[in-house]
Structure formats: structure tokens, C-alpha cells
């Protein structure tokens, strides 16, 4: 696991689009998933990496291909309780359930601790089976909200850790 650099933008965008398609098939409309574009994602990731606020780590395969990423930083909605947030963690389907997720999220959480965030929140779609990943890290559901993605009404759930150290 290492900190993402500008050279990783294409690789991150590829993982982002590919894992959205495999993760949200049957949850988010096929139309929307088919419209996801690696080049547009790469533009967004360029901005994210350049703004210097987010913490982004990548996981590489043995051949140096980016197979996963995780990012986090200050909580984005001004939540009165939770200060630190993991914004996203995505691993290519072919590389899931091999322990990479835990290895990838830990340096992001460690950096959030380093930046003095006392607690942590992570939002996930209620229908996403991967929520168990956050439960395996000790997260508890602390909030729920509706979200509209491409005309589909979905529910997002928030996993919270009151003491961020417990997520490590
Ligand atoms: C969720 C994700 C990041 C987890 O990473 P991972 O490398 O697959 O997970 P790990 O191997 O580190 O798993 C650690 C533990 O989490 C739990 N877990 C992870 N994924 C799970 C799943 N799909 N279903 C049930 N439990 C899961 C298990 O307890 C697992 O331990 P085990 O494999 O010994 O049973 C990864 O599967 C992924 O990218 N999924 C698709 C994208 C996604 O849903 N991202 C989160 C959006 S909110």
C-alpha cells in the first residue's frame, strides 16, 4: 500500500469505474453504470489528488497495476459528531476478499488519526453486501439517509466509530 501520486490517476479511475459496475449491478440502473466514463473519472481524481486535502492510498498487483484505492479526509457534510471520514474504498472484483481492503483502509485511518480526527464515519449503500467489511472493523450503524442516484431512490447507511482508534 502506498500514497497515490499523479501517475496513478488513470489506474484509480479504471478501478473506480470497473468496481462501480461490478458492485452496483442490480442496485443502480444499468444505464447509469454504462455511462460511467474512465476519462471523466480521471479528471475528477486529478482534482482530488491536486487539492491536497484528501488522503488517498492505492494497492498494486505484483505487476504494478492499480487494483484498489481508498480515500478519506475531513467529514464532508458538517456532521456535528463525526469529524473524520473514509470517502471511498474500491478494489477490483478479482482482488477482493484477499485481505487487501483491510490493508488499504488502515493507512487512511492512521493518517486521519495523525490529523487528530477523534472519530470516524463511512457511508455505504444499504443494499451493498460489502457493508459487512465495515462491521468486521467494528463499525456500528449510526445514521441513514435517502439518496437519489440516476432516478433510483436508495438508502445510504453510515457506519460510525466513536473512537477512531477502534477502527484500526
Ligand atoms: C468492501 C471491500 C473494500 C473490502 O475489501 P476486501 O479486500 O474485499 O476485504 P478483506 O479481504 O480485507 O475482508 C476483511 C473482512 O471484511 C468482511 N467482508 C469484506 N467483504 C465482504 C463481503 N462482500 N461480504 C461479506 N463480508 C465481507 C469479511 O469479514 C472479511 O473477512 P474474511 O474474508 O476473513 O471473511 C472490497 O470488497 C470492495 O472493494 N468491494 C466492492 C466495492 C465496495 O463495495 N466498496 C465499499 C463501498 S461503500
Give a structural overview.
- The chain is built from five helices and seven strands.
- Strands 1-2-3-4-5-7-6 form a seven-stranded mixed beta sheet, sandwiched between helices.
- The radius of gyration is 15 Å and the shape is globular.
- The protein is α+β, with helices and mostly antiparallel strands and about 170 residues long.
- About 35% of the residues lie in helices and about 30% in strands.
- The protein has one domain (about 1-165): Aminopeptidase (3-Layer(aba) Sandwich), CATH 3.40.630.
Bound molecules: coenzyme A
Instruction: Tell me the helix content.
Output: 25-40%
Task: Please state the structural category.
Answer: alpha+beta
Number of domains: 1
Radius of gyration: 15 Å
Distance between the termini: 15 Å
How much strand content do the residues show?
Answer: 25-35%
Q: Layout of helices and strands, plus pairs?
A:
Elements: E1 2-3, H1 9-24, H2 30-35, H3 38-51, E2 55-60, E3 66-74, E4 84-91, H4 100-114, E5 120-125, H5 131-136, E6 140-149, E7 152-161
Parallel strand pairs: 4-5
Antiparallel strand pairs: 1-2, 2-3, 3-4, 5-7, 6-7
Helix pairs in contact: 1-3
Coenzyme A binds next to helix 1, strand 4, helix 4 and helix 5.
Protein name: GNAT family N-acetyltransferase
InterPro entries: Acyl_CoA_acyltransferase, GNAT_dom
Pfam families: Acetyltransf_1
Amino acid at each position: 500500500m502506498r500514497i497515490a501520486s499523479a501517475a496513478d490517476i488513470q489506474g484509480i479511475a479504471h478501478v473506480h469505474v470497473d468496481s462501480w459496475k461490478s458492485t452496483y449491478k442490480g442496485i443502480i440502473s444499468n444505464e447509469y453504470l454504462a455511462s460511467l466514463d474512465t476519462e471523466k473519472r480521471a479528471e475528477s481524481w486529478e482534482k482530488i489528488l491536486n487539492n491536497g486535502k484528501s488522503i488517498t492510498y492505492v494497492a498494486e498487483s505484483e505487476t504494478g497495476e492499480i487494483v484498489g484505492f481508498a480515500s478519506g479526509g475531513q467529514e464532508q457534510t458538517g456532521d456535528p459528531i463525526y469529524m473524520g471520514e473514509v470517502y471511498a474504498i474500491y478494489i477490483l472484483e478479482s482482488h477482493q476478499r484477499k485481505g487487501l481492503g483491510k490493508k488499504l483502509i488502515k493507512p487512511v485511518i492512521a493518517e486521519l488519526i495523525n490529523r487528530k480526527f477523534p472519530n470516524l464515519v463511512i457511508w455505504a449503500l444499504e443494499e451493498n453486501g460489502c457493508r459487512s467489511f465495515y462491521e468486521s472493523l467494528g463499525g456500528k450503524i449510526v445514521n441513514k439517509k435517502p439518496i437519489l442516484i440516476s432516478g433510483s431512490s436508495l438508502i445510504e447507511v453510515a457506519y460510525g466509530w466513536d473512537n477512531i482508534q477502534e477502527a484500526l
